[in-house]
What does this fold into?
Amino acid sequence: MPEYDEKKFKELILYASERLFDDPKFGATKLNKVLYFSDFLAFARLGEPITGATYQKLEQGPAPKQLLPARDALVAQGDAEYVERAYFRNYTQKRIIPQRAADLSLFAAEEIAIVDEVIEDLRDRSATEVSELSHASVGWRIARLGDEIPYESALLSDEPLSE
It folds into this structure.
């Protein structure tokens, strides 16, 4: 099992939140999916995740177990603000607003390239759309509600075999 890197995880939260600041559809659900897809895509391509966070299956898709403690620590340290605002009909959008730039020196160029790719793929998509994308991942589908999604599932496919 990959080792969790709390510092990289916090910096990745800040980086993704900064990059998606101007996306009106950016909130907690999209942040969860950026973190998930970035870690799992890195595992598939590089052989290890970026942060080593533990992701669990929730109804709205995968979410890192470490997100709330990391968010609260960033807020307590003055590195981020956490805001909730009314959003579209009766929804509440929950956002992390960075108060400083992320420390990118902790990341390899390949890691940031993967995160940037994920961010661009999810930009302007709604929370519902990004949740549906995450529900298509084999890892999310094979896990039971509340269970951990293994990184190795990033290597699985349910596509039909080619000739």
